[in-house]
Write a structure and sequence with these properties.
By secondary structure, the chain is mainly alpha-helical. It contains 22 helices and two strands.
Length: 461
């Protein structure tokens, strides 16, 4: 439903972009609705809505951001709401700048500081920041060019030093524990505040010894990536993207290829989950190229799993199976977490089970999905977020087999298990299950589940 204040005349900027993209009115409306739905919002637009936009009427709320994101994907370049001839509080200068992988690391630090202070002090003014998949091409290219230019050298060992380095590592460990127990929402502001107020000034100091400087930049990159993951868990996907892009640039200064691979894994996860699996596969492959000589089989395992997720989402069972096989081989090659980088010690066979279950679910292979999801649920009693996600996958697998009552019971346990855990990733998995219930919506048990789930999942489309 379009609304807001009409412009003085026709929107020539939007007309030109539509013509350049070769996109019909109906196709644009469908894509906007789809992008909004993936972020838990119900929007109802059709080709008539697009006609009204072209006549100068601006849609309400976050719709301009989704229009810009849809056209960015089609044109393979960043389109802002200003380019559309529309306005949005989200398009503050730092929000656009944070999508870029800057050559000058000083500019990166300035961007992180401004991004963090804006998010903390004026979050309501910042508004919802759009996720722009096409904007990831440049950071990926710049990272790979740096990788090619680097001489082959051992990966920097992640060893806690004295003073500042030790302090930052201790804070990372604390944030990680809180995130695993309660989800990223509750810890997000603390991570961003510590990164902005404490760590960025450390990285801006001159005269730091070379080895300590590299360790500090690596730790800063890890914190920026954590800010990204906690934004993801807060359903703030655009901010997640921007923090992860800046994390990748900081990681270049630290020279840690294991962490660089894991940041690319995070971006791959984000892309595939938001409906951009081709970009997800490309980012996973960039991560594999990064990590293959870094001496981290567990890091490689995760990247191959992310590639499998993308392939499965595209319906390419052969490629997904090959990627899962590579992930298993990498896991088998690991000599144990103690011999790996600190950044990947949380990865294990149960992590791979959970990711493989998602792949088999998306490929419609319900038997394998059920077996792996059951194993993941049993193994992750202490990891409530991962357990909730695996329960949602288990529910979907049982639904695929026509076991509606069992599926609803499993999904209800996933819903109950999220009490006290604030995680959009868990909510996403349950929304996926709810979408699969569409053919059964008239069943009383389904209506009861939807009634109970609505406060957490929002209204169904």
């Amino acid at each position: 439903m379009s609304g807001g204040t009409g412009a003085a005349g026709a929107n020539a900027a939007l007309q030109a972009l539509l013509k350049e993209a070769g996109c019909s009115h109906a196709a644009l409306a469908r894509r906007v609705v789809e992008l909004a739905h993936r972020q838990g919002l119900v929007m109802r637009y059709d080709k008539a809505s697009v006609t009204r936009w072209l006549q100068g009427m601006q849609p309400r709320g976050r719709a301009p951001e989704f229009i810009a994101a849809a056209l960015s994907d089609l044109l393979k370049r960043t389109v802002t709401t200003s380019d559309l001839g529309m306005t949005s509080a989200a398009q503050r200068p730092v929000v656009t700048r944070a999508l870029t992988y800057g050559e000058d690391v000083g500019e990166t630090l300035h961007t992180l500081a401004e991004l963090g202070s804006t998010a903390i002090s004026r979050r309501s003014l910042l508004g919802g920041v759009p996720f722009v998949a096409s904007a990831l091409v440049e950071p990926q290219r710049e990272w790979l060019l740096w990788l090619l230019e680097e001489e082959r050298s051992p990966t920097l060992a992640v060893v806690a030093g004295s003073g500042q380095v030790e302090q930052v590592h201790a804070m990372i460990a604390m944030f990680d524990e809180m995130d695993n127990s309660y989800g990223g929402v509750g810890v997000h502001t603390s991570i961003v505040n510590y990164l902005t107020v404490e760590v960025v000034p450390m990285l801006q100091q001159r005269g730091t010894a070379h080895h300590q400087r590299k360790q500090l930049f690596t730790a800063g990159a890890k914190l920026a990536a954590m800010a990204g993951w906690s934004s993801y868990d807060s359903a703030d996907y655009g901010m997640a993207q921007r923090h992860m892009v800046q994390a990748l640039r900081l990681c270049r200064e630290g020279g840690d290829r294991v962490l660089g691979g894991q940041i690319l894994a995070g971006l791959s996860h984000l892309c595939t989950s938001l409906g951009h699996p081709r970009e997800g596969v490309a980012l996973a492959r960039a991560g594999i190229a990064t990590a293959k000589s870094a001496g981290s089989p567990l890091g490689l395992m995760r990247l191959h799993a992310m590639a499998a997720r993308g392939h499965a989402s595209l319906g390419d069972g052969r490629a997904a199976t090959t990627a899962l096989h590579e992930a298993t081989n990498a896991l088998d090659a690991s000599k144990g977490a103690a011999q790996e980088s600190a950044w990947v010690r949380f990865l294990d066979a149960h992590y791979l089970e959970a990711e493989a279950a998602l792949c088999h679910r998306d490929l419609g292979e319900s038997g394998a999905a059920e077996r792996l999801a059951e194993a993941s649920v049993a193994a992750n009693a202490e990891r409530r977020r991962r357990r909730a996600i695996s329960r949602s996958v288990l529910a979907a697998a049982r639904l695929q087999q026509g076991r509606l009552d069992e599926a609803l019971g499993t999904a209800t346990r996933a819903l109950d298990g999220l009490e006290g855990v604030h995680s959009e990733r868990s909510v996403q998995a349950l929304r996926d299950f709810r979408l699969r219930l569409a053919p059964h919506r008239q069943e009383p048990l389904v209506r009861e589940f939807e009634r109970k789930a609505k406060p957490l999942l929002g209204a169904s489309a």
